[in-house]
Structure formats: C-alpha cells, structure tokens
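Hey team,

Filing this mostly as a record. A colleague (T.K.) asked me to run one chain through the structure pipeline before their review meeting, and I want the input and output archived in the tracker in case anyone asks later how it was produced. No errors, nothing strange. Just documentation.

Input sequence:
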Amino acid sequence: MASKAFLITIILATIAAPPAFATDYVVGDDAGWKLGVDYTAWAEGKDFYVGDRLIFNYAEGVHNVYKVNGTAFQQCTVPSPFEALTSGNDVITLATAGRKWYICGVGNHCASGMKLVITVASSIAPASAPAPAPISGGPVMHNKKPMDFWSNWKLKINF
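Output structure:
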C-alpha cells in the first residue's frame, strides 16, 4: 500500500513539474561554424522552439557571428563590429518566435555561404491525439510533444 502511495506521489510531482524540452543545437554539428558547410541543409528538418539554444563553435579570431535582419542576411551587410559575437563558442538562446538570421562578418565569408536562417516556433505544439503505447520498453517522446510522453505513462499505469 505504501509503495502505491509513493508511486502516485512521484507521478503527481512529475506531472506538476514544468517540462524542460529546450534543445541545444550545435550549428553545423561536428563541422561547426566555418566555410564550406551548407547551413540551409543543416537546418532542414530541425524544429526550433523558443528556449532552444544555438551554439556556434569556431576558431576564435577566424570567424564571428552576427544576428541580422532579413535584408542584411540577403545582402551580407555586416553591422557594427560591436555587435559581433567573437568567443569561438557563442551561445544564443532563442527568446522569441519568428525568422532568425545569422551571418559571419569576416571578409567575404557570408557571401561564400557562411550564413544561417531558421524559423523559431513560439511553443511546443500539442499532440493532436495520444500516441499508442509502445510494444516494448518505456514511454516514447516524439517531436518534443509533451502529450505523447504523458499519454504513454497514462496508458501504462493502472490504479
């Protein structure tokens, strides 16, 4: 009886806690932020949400990162040097929804393709229907949809 009460307490505490679904994306994956990487292809198929983080890894002093608007992105217009991120390990938290543009402002790097555009969604979309319980194993999460996770738990627990 005590173990059942403990299990219920744990489940309720877990449900009440806000889910932390933020994802860290290393721009360019293992290649990082450098010339010769197709950042359009890298971003394709990825879902970016408010709270996710972009991590730009590059050789310090060789590249930089600017957050720009769509026009500056298209024309590779470099803003003031004071706006550049230059650490070689720059982390940008996606704070708002919408289109986001990033370029390298060194030489002709932007014109050579060292630029990234993504679309950030405001929140995690709710699941349209509960996911079926997996045939074996534990709960499964798909596309950062909390309803899939909780639906699986609900299907597996019988009180």
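Quick notes for T.K.: The chain is about 25% helix and 20% strand. Residues 124-159 form one domain.
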